[in-house]
Structures are given as C-alpha cells and as structure tokens.
Amino acid sequence: MMRPFGIKNFRSFDEEGIYLKNIEKLNIFIGKNNSGKSTVLRFLKYFSQAVQVKNLNTFPSGIHEEHKRNGHKTSFLIPLLHEELDFPNNVPLENPFIVEFEIQTQKVKNIDIFKNIEIQLLNHCLDKRRDHIYSVNQDTLKNLIESLQIKIENFIKTTVVNEFKDIVYIPHFRTIGKSTESSLSEINGSDIIHKMFEMQHPVTGNEHHKEQFFKIQNFVKELLKAEDLEIEIPHTKDNVLINLHGNRLPLDSFGTGIHQLVILCSALVINENKIVCIEEPEVYLHPELQRMFLNFLIQETDHTYFISTHSNVFIDFNKDIQVNHVTYNGVSTKIEQINESIDAKNILDDLGYKNSDLLQSNGIIWVEGPSDRAYINRWISLVRDDLKEGLHYSIMFYGGKLLSHLSFEPKEYNPANKEFLENELIDLMRINKNSFVVIDRDGVSSNVVIRDTKKRIQDEIGNNLCWITKGREIENYLTANTLEKWLDSKYHKNSSVQYSQDNKLEDTISGTNSKIKYNLKKSQYSKEISEFVEVDDMNILDLKKNIEILVKLIDEWNK
Q1: 117 C-beta neighbours (distance < 10 Å), count
Q2: Domain limits for position 50
Q3: Which of 223, 229, 356 is CA-nearest to residue 291?
Q4: Does pTM top 0.70 for this prediction?
C-alpha cells in the first residue's frame, strides 16, 4: 500500500496544506466545481515528471503559476518509519518522522532540497534536548544529525522516488488519434492505437501482450454486455475498429461512452501496478457503466488510483475505497477523509443534491437502463405535464441482470451483522422506501412464464408497485405510428413498420432499414423516438393504465 503524504503551498493548498493519512486502492476526491479536486492529481503528475528527469526539486517549466501566489515554496511531506531507516531506538524523533522538502520551478536552480531536512533534524533534536528527553553533547548531536540526514536522503532518492516515479495521468478530455511520441506517462488516447496494435500482433517473446489485448476486449464486452464484440487495430494503425452484431465500423461510429471505455480500459491494461490519476472518469458514462467501471478497478486491476469526480456513484464505502471530501473556503482548499456513510450527506449537499435526487428523493422509479427513462418521462409528461424528474421523482437504473442481486423486501438491518449487505441481497428500500419498479417481461410470447427473479421482485414490493411489461420489453409500447414518424423525420425513411408486442425493437427496425441498429445507440434513439409519442399512442396494451397508476403514486410521494 502506498505511503501517506502531504502537500503545502501548491495551487489552492496553503501553508497548512493537506495530509492524506489513509490511502487505499481507490482514493476518490469529490466536491464542488473549483474546489480543488484535481490538485492532488496534478501535483503527483508534476512530481512524477520531476522524478523522471532525476531532479526532485524542479517541476517542469511553464507551471510556476501553479504555486501559491503568497510567495511560499511548494513542499512535499513524506512520513518515514524508523524501521525503514534502521534508526537507533534512542533517536529523538517521532515515529514516523515527517520529512518536508521544498520544490521549485526550473526558474530557480541549484536548490539543495535536503538542506531543509538538516534544519528540521537540528531543530527537532534541540527541542528534545530542552525537554530533557535527549541529552548529549554538541559533537554527538552533530554526528547524529549528519548520520540521520544521510539515511533520509538515500532513502528518499531510492525507495520514495521509486514509489512516485512513473505515474499514469488520464485527463478528463480523452480522444483516440494517431500515436505520438512522449516521455510522459500521460494518456489522453493519442498513443493508444500504436500500443494496442503491438499487443494484438506481439513480437516473438512478447506473446503475453496478446493476453493484455484480450483483457481489454473482454473488459469492454463485459461493460457493454456484448458477447460478440471484437476489437481490431488495422495495419494502417490509424483507427480502432469495433466488430459488433455483424458490423465492422470505426470506433467513432459508436457512442461516445464506448469510445471513452476503450481509452480507459486500454490505459489501465497497458500499464501495470502503478499510481493512476484519473480526471472525471464519469464523463460520457451513464451511472450503471460508472458502477461497473468502479467494480472493475477494484476487482481486476492492481493500480493505486487517485480519482477526481462530481459523480455520487463513486461515493462507495468499500474497504478498498477512501472518499475525500474537497472544499474551498475562498482562501484555501481543505480535504476531509470520510470513513462513514453517514458523513456522505455533507458531500451530497455540497454537490447540490436536493430531496428530489437519489438518496434523498421523494420517490424512485427503478428501470433497467437509460432508454426506459426516456420513454417513461415522455409518457408521464403526456398524462401530467407538471410532474418533473429531479423535482417530483427520480429515475434510477438497476441494470438488467443485476436485478437478481436486488431486493425490495423491507428488512430490519442489524448493525452488529456487518456481513449483511455483503452476503445478502441489496435492499433497495434502504435507499428509499418510496419505490416503483419497471421490469421487461422478456420471452418470445405473452404466454412465457415470468422468471423467478422477476416474480420475486413483484412479490416483495407488491403488484401495485411493480410493472412487468405486457409486451416483450418496454419498447413494445411504441406504436407503429410513432416509429414511422421518427424514421421519416429523423432519417428520411418513408417506411411502414409492422408492429408486434413480442418482437424486439432492434429486429423491427432492422426489417425496415438495416443501417439503423437500435441496440448500438439505444440512449440516443430512445430520446429521439420519445419526441414523437403523442397521447393517442398511449392506448396500447396496458400502457396508459400503468402510467396513470404511476402518476397517482408520484402525487402521493410528494404530499
């Protein structure tokens, strides 16, 4: 595990600075905009660059403005254990002894960063002498300080430097392009293609790189729930190709979320056992993908992560996660390490979450994914245009197969039983007692037997709070009229759609126009299609009845 460290006088950190005592596998920095969430990540990036050029006291040129404007020099604080340095038992230093050394920009040269360590040792030992804890003559004290300083300097130059020398930095803006040569471990996507090509076609002796390539591919398969997905780098090395559902297309042809996942997955697999700094990994990823990505970091990688984020999804009190609440008081940034879920309320308040959002919502409609959200919001608005998501209700995703791990059975949680949440079903009633769940029937016909998991959920929450679609999936509530208007208006396809309550929408649209693959862009297409749903289109199957029940329930939540 990575050693603790502190930072002073860097960007919004003042003379008091911050000290990160508890460092876990995932270290999350969350707070308002401009609070200083990324400051720790940037410091580690610059320090790593300084280490790479073997000059600990010089940050790269051009970033002198990153220093505090109060004229103080940036300082790095590192705790050193006596056992690590083989100190004598009677050494008058705290254990660990926190060493502080200053860092300048390249505008200032020939700075002896270890001179400050000598002063620290001298002052500390003299204080101990005055306290009569350690009494030696001046020569002995001088020899002791020289010996301690040599040990500390050597330890920092070797062990400590090795811990920080090769940090992977992934900025919030990530794109894939042609490879560029760089000595930095900064990954913004520009060098991904070349490295992936080398893994796809390893030279003799590096066959294990092929396993890394498959690991990237399998990761993306799992996140996108697409078993037939394949990643390919052509010999031109100018693009990433995705083979999915019989199509071989450039990565740019797919959704932005897929684009981002390929970059993130590749960066994490290409590098092994490093410190990884990620800026806002939630960008372009809907909450369910964020959760799966977070789980992958914990379960499948060996890095130590520093992550800045606005997303509440990353507020997880897993034993491998340290949540850091970042605040700015107008003068300096402070970081509070949060260890209890009850303290997360302050973070949610800081991020602007109100009673109508997530944990404090008046009521939650649980659906499988983003496309369900688009349709349900549209249907609710057609019945009651004064009801607004984020004000009167929230919509949350349970993510398809994850339904088997969830429960709506009210249970009395016993704090003494710490294994309850880990070993039993996740009780969604603990998030909010006001819940309604929408579940796709699935199956090839209306006569299909409802699966045990779905029946269990229905029994737990009650028939009046569980809507199992009468058609195969929620898209089967879309009328032929709606789909035809969408195809004609958006894609100029003057088509006749054959409606069926048992066919997948993907198959229905493919039969009309094979170039439109609904499943590849469900989130985008669902938003587009919902715009063409009118009141008369709700007279299909049991749609209107269930929406009216849901609207009445939302009214009760908001009384």
Answers
A1: 20
A2: 5-164
A3: 223
A4: no
Token readout for 261 is 């996942």
Show the 3-state SS of 324-360. Answer: EEEEECCCCEEEEEECCHHHHHHHHHHCCCCCCCHHH
CA atoms within 13 A on the CB side of 317: 10
**CA dist 551 → 303, 357, 380, 504 (Å):** 47, 18, 7, 27
Tens digits of residue pLDDT in 429-473: 656 678 899 999 888 777 788 888 888 888 888 888 999 999 999
CB 82 within 8 A of CB 91: yes
In single-letter form, the type of residue at position 101 comes to F
Name which of 307, 301, 303, 313 is nearest 277 in CA terms: 307
Return the ∠ at Cα 348 (arms to 347 and 352), rounded to 5°. Answer: 115
Please tell me the distance from the alpha carbon of residue 372 to that of residue 280, in angstroms, as a whole number: 26
438 shares its domain with 494: yes
For 334, residues 6+ apart whose C-beta sits below 8 A from its C-beta are 18, 326, 327, 328
Among candidate residues 164, 191, 215, the one where a domain is terminated: 164
3-class state of residue 467 by DSSP: strand
Which tokens hold the place of 299? 């379960």
The answer to whether residue 242 is domain-embedded is yes
Q: At what angle do helices 480-491 and 522-530 cross, to 10 degrees?
A: 110
CA distance 282 to 290: 6
